[in-house]
Amino acid sequence: MNHRPYTSLTILAALLVAAGIAGAAEIDFDFDGSTPVGSWQEREQVTEDGGKTSVSIMKLKYLGDEERNGETYSWLETEAKSFKVKKKGRKQQGDTVYMKALIKKSLLEGDVVNSIGNFNDMAIDIIMQSGDQQPMRIKNAGEMMGGVARATGLQISYELTADGSEEVSVPAGTFSCDRYRGKGSATMDLMIKKMRVDSNAIQWISKDVPFGVVKIVSEDTVNGKPQHSETTLLSFGRSGATSGITGEPEDMPEMPSLGGLFGG
Fold it and tell me: Is residue 221 part of a domain?
């Protein structure tokens, strides 16, 4: 295994990007009924940004449960690949990134979409691996992300409303879905730059699919720059999910002062 070191800033940036702005959204979903242990789904997101097209493919897995302090926690893992789209086809950018998170199961049962979209600040432990690098463990991840939010002055405003039902066809099949419309914004200060993301999205959720997500269409602006993205379900299963993380994780070195890192 290659032991190229991670930097604290690299990992922190990955967590911030993954967090998104779905924090205030709530969607009721029967997690136990739709997503048994071993379930997985794979979906593709195509983003149009200033005439450039990028693609990410993410596989989400439910690996199992464990008891801590008398409560049940669940291990979820994302496996993400990023591609640039060129005339000759897609070219993968960077390594495949694995992120495994331990989340209180009651959160998944109450609001699975929100929990998955923001598991960085809901997880008590996170294990990350990029390509063949040494896997790293982040303990008390939720506390760390709370510190990041305070240090960056993160502000989130998001409203989600039910918008009826609709039959939707994607590569994985045709599903009866509940439709939700979401609109909101997030702002944060990153070093000397202020970031603002505004999002206007439609989500299609089906109880017949593990984790629920069938399709998402989003019109966003990042610091005023427009982006369009469309996420579709490629495939899924209710058994067979396995972790892509290899080797024994090492604990991540202590983070630098967040106030100094972000200028707060």
Answer: yes
Q: Which domain holds residue 98?
A: 8-241
pTM of the model: 0.80
Q: The domain spanning residue 179 has which CATH number?
A: 2.40.360
Q: What is the pLDDT of residues 61-83, one digit of tens each?
A: 999 999 988 999 999 999 999 99
SS3 151: helix
8 A C-beta contact, residue 132 and residue 242: no
Report whether 205 contacts 27 (CB < 8 A): yes
Taking only the tens place, the pLDDT of each residue in 224-239 is 889 899 999 999 999 9
List pLDDT tens digits, range 86-101: 888 888 888 999 999 8
> For the chain, how many structural domains are there in total?
1
Beta bridge partners of 76: 62, 101
**211 falls within a domain:** yes
Helical (H) or strand (E) element with 115: helix 112-117
Q: Is residue 262 part of a domain?
A: no
258 falls within a domain: no
